[in-house]
Amino acid sequence: MAAYYARQDPYGDFVTAPEISQAFGECLGVWSAVVWEGMGRPDPLVWAELGPGRGTLMSDARRAVAQVAPDFARAARVHLVEASARLRAEQAARLGGDVTWRDGVAGLPAGPAVVLANEFFDALPVRQFVRRGAGWVERFVADGVFVERGSEVALGDAPEGAVREVGEAGADVVRALMRRGGCVALMLDYGPAESGVGESLQAMRGGEAVDPLVAPGDADVTAHVDFAALAEAARGVGAAAHGPLPQGVFLQRLGLASRAAMLARADPAGAGRQLAAAQRLLAPEAMGRLFKALALCDAALPTPPGFDA
Ligand code: SAH
After folding, report:
1. Shortest-distance Cα residue to atom 21 of ligand 1
2. Which atom of ligand 1 is nearest to the CA of 124?
3. Ligand 1 pocket test: which of 4, 58, 82 has the largest number of ligand atoms within 8 Å of its C-beta?
């Protein structure tokens, strides 16, 4: 999945929440500032984003906090975890100076941290296991086709041929973040609230679904995020998990609709576009329900805003 981000402009293949409405990044910026208040206003704070894409979310978030939470803006040091050199250049152009890039979460400096991740975990690799007889085999790719090899893994019972996906890479990121201590992480992504069987690996190229094996590195390959597994990984290292909540519910509680209404009033010619964009993020039949928000945090810290209702 990483080769694709290094080579292609992913935004030809999909559109993400921060690109739909500036209110998305603004609300997450203010959310971060409120979380920081609950942490006791640590200074400095590591304010990190995982997989920032074009840098739009962080750019909108920073503009919002500069206005409404200047103390937070001064304390927050922005760190971007980004694998793609090409996207790093776009992020630099969008965000200007005062930003540090990291290859992975292990490279983040120690200390209290607020971490944002929108559509990051769905880009991490998954392992697929297929139920065969009384056990499970693992699916690999060899010479451009799927092959199955025996495995010892125990994943419970399931009908013959059922597929289970295991996102070890995502769980590793969660454990690394939560072991830091003093960390609150918000992840927004596409996936079910409960773990289950089913194959979700998919590839998009030029806005159309394609076979994930046809054009490795040229199609955007993603898998649904297993939120229950990420929450379990956090609890396994003593952290607390809040949610997942449907994205629409979470953003509504953060005031995204009010912010969109304000943007619409300020720009009568673009009002229809502003309101439609907010609806796309909030409405259950659009991105409001299939996308989820999950907060993972140091168990000593208060429940983050939006998850306490
Ligand atoms: N958050 C952005 C982009 C989502 S696309 C948005 O909402 O628009 C996924 C992002 O994660 C890209 O920036 C991609 O380059 C980055 N990424 C994918 N796998 C990664 C990895 N293993 N390590 C670091 N960054 C990664």
Report:
1. 83
2. 19
3. 82
- Encode pLDDT of 5-39 as tens digits: 776 666 666 789 999 999 999 999 999 999 999 99
Ligand 1 pocket check: which of 81, 84, 186 to mutate, most ligand atoms within 8 Å of Cβ?
84
* pLDDT at position 103: 97
In the structure encoding, which two tokens stand for residue 27, read together?
A: 């609300």
Query: pTM for the full model?
Result: 0.95
Q: How far apart are CA 305 and CA 296, in angstroms?
A: 12
Could you give the CA distance from residue 172 to residue 88 in angstroms, rounded to a whole number?
Answer: 23
CA distances from 60 to 22, 37, 251, 259, 298 (A): 6, 20, 15, 13, 26
Residue type, 49: E
Q: Which of 29, 52, 35 is nearest to 113 (CA)?
A: 35
Q: Evaluate: CB of 53 within 6 angstroms of ligand 1.
A: yes
Whether 55 is in the pocket of ligand 1, judged by its Cβ within 6 Å, is: no
- Name the one residue in this structure whose structure tokens are 């998954």: 126
Ligand 1 atom closest to residue 56's alpha carbon, by position in its atom list: 8
85 Cβ neighbours under 8 A, 6+ residues apart? 6
- 189 CB near ligand 1 (under 6 Å): no
pLDDT in tens, 145-180: 899 998 888 899 999 999 999 999 999 999 999 999
